[in-house]
Structure formats: structure tokens, C-alpha cells
């Protein structure tokens, strides 16, 4: 039986070319050969390429030598994803997909297969938020004693420097008061965080699309960009999920406030810290989107930030 061809999904090609330089094209060119190498090394049989797949990763549905299903993920090398394998190893299947093998030097991981076409986005928002928080609580554990993960403080410090530069973009001229507020609020949050003793392993990119249905557990998280810090930072990305639905709802400003209040109460976090981190993360995402030419998402992010 002829093995399926390894084709690179259009979304992955478009994203890598848009977000990266010439190195991204070189990675895309080498990707089929890299996939073939790990299929052979880990004794895998290819079933099919996931379409549309990840934005910056190639995902192949495979069978292991014993016939069990798995997923081979090959991710574009970027700093935020460098410790994904370490987080998955530490969680060891508790709230997230299990990792069977990894080759961090190539961004390659052999993972438990989840139902890629059934995420929390398939549920009504209220039910999705409830399930999302339940799964996220399982991920909030103490990191290993000698861990490799970046702290929220260090990561946000770098984001603040980039946001300060992007503030001067011509397209951001009218947004500077909002950007300045996000910078001021984040500075205060970082200063105050030195007095807090909440150092938990965070997912870092937690939203409904990164929580998939699975056989071993109703829902499992995928694609972490792990950090160590406070829960409110992790919740902030969940707080701005489904912005297109929120923007089209009656009274979106009141709906945004209610969403944050419910999340803060359900997770037992300080509502002002959740609001502050949500404001910062959403403004940062909005200006990043502007910078890469994604005006649709930039508009959604920045409209939501203004509601806060």
C-alpha cells in the first residue's frame, strides 16, 4: 500500500511566510523530509496530514508500531514553543495530551491523539468556559524544582519593550492612549507581583481552540507556550476568547465586564489583576496583529481592549 504524500497545508505556508523571514521558507522546504525522517525513526505509519492543521506546525495523524493512534507534530522553531515538550512531560497527561517521544532540536513531538476537529469551540460559550476552567485548573501545578520555564515577569518585560516600539507605528497613532494604559497597568502589575507567592506552571496560550475532545478524558489541552507565574495571567487569554461573538452581542461592553467578573469569581483570582492582564495581553496582541498586517484580528483585539 502506497503511503500518503506529505503535503504542507496552505494555512501553515501562509502563516510562516507572513510571520517569518527567509528562514521560514527554508523550514517549509525542509519539512517533508523532516517528517519522513521522524516517521522512520519512531516507526510510525502515516494515515493523513491534518488540514488545516496548526498555524505554525505540521500535524500528521499516525499509527505507532503497536497499531495505536498518535499525532506527530513538527513545529516551526520559535522561543515561545521551546519548552512545550518540558511542560507536557511535567503534566504527564493530567489535563493535557500525553507526549510519547520528543526531539526538541527539531521541534518534533509524538503525542497522544485527540479529536482535532472537536474543540471547546463546538460548545455554547457558557458551557465552553466552564469546561475550559475545569481543564485549566488541572494544569496549574507547581513546576519542577529546577525548571527551564520563563517567568511571567521576564516574558512580559520583553513584550513591554516590543509594545513600546510598536506604539510608534503610524497605524498605532490613534491607539497610543490605550497602549500607554496597557504599559502603565502592566508595570504596576509586575511591581506588585514581587510581593505575591504564586508560581505555578501556566499554559500560556489557553483558549477554546487549544482544548480538544479525547478518549482518555473529555477534554485535553494542546499547544502550550508555558510560563511560570500567576493564574490571572493564564486566564487573561481565555477572557478574550470568541471576540467575534462578543462584539456582535447586544451590549458588548457589559458582556465583556460580566465575562471577566465570572471568570475571576469562578477561578478565585483578583478581578482587577485579571482585568489588568487581559488589557495588556489584548493590546499587545492587537498591535502585533497590526504589525503583521492582520487588520481583522487587530480590530477585534483593540475593540475588546477598549471595553476594559
Distance between the termini: 57 Å
Instruction: Please identify which CATH superfamily of the largest domain we are dealing with.
Output: Aminoglycoside phosphotransferase (APH), C-terminal lobe
Oligomeric organization of the protein chains? single chain
What Rg is obtained from the alpha carbons, in whole angstroms? 20 Å
CATH fold label of the largest domain: Aminoglycoside 3'-phosphotransferase, Chain: A, domain 2
Number of domains: 2
In total, the number of strands is: 10
| Average pLDDT, all residues | 93
Strand content: 5-15%
Write the layout of secondary structure elements.
Layout: H1 10-19, H2 22-41, E1 45-49, E2 57-63, E3 69-75, H3 84-91, E4 99-103, E5 108-111, E6 115-119, H4 125-139, H5 152-166, H6 176-193, E7 200-202, E8 211-213, E9 219-221, E10 227-229, H7 231-239, H8 243-247, H9 252-267, H10 271-291, H11 295-307
Antiparallel strand pairs: 1-2, 2-3, 3-5, 4-5, 6-8, 7-10, 8-9
Helix pairs in contact: 1-2, 5-6, 5-10, 6-10, 7-9, 7-10, 10-11
Detailed description of the structure:
It comes from Streptacidiphilus jiangxiensis. This is Streptomycin 6-kinase. It holds the Pfam family APH_6_hur. The protein is α+β, with helices and mostly antiparallel strands and 308 residues long. The chain folds into 2 domains: 10-113, Phosphorylase Kinase, domain 1, CATH 3.30.200.20; 118-307, Aminoglycoside 3'-phosphotransferase, Chain: A, domain 2 (Alpha-Beta Complex), CATH 3.90.1200. The chain is 49% helix and 15% strand. It has helices at 10-19, 22-41, 84-91, 125-139, 152-166, 176-193, 231-239, 243-247, 252-267, 271-291, 295-307, and strands at residues 45-49, 57-63, 69-75, 99-103, 108-111, 115-119, 200-202, 211-213, 219-221, 227-229. Strands 1-2-3-5-4 form a 5-stranded antiparallel β-sheet, sandwiched between helices. A 3-stranded antiparallel β-sheet has the order 6-8-9, with helices on one face. Strands 7-10 form a two-stranded antiparallel ribbon. Helix 5 packs across helix 10 and helix 10 runs antiparallel to helix 11 (295-307). The longest helix has 21 residues, at 271-291. The radius of gyration is 20 Å and the shape is globular.
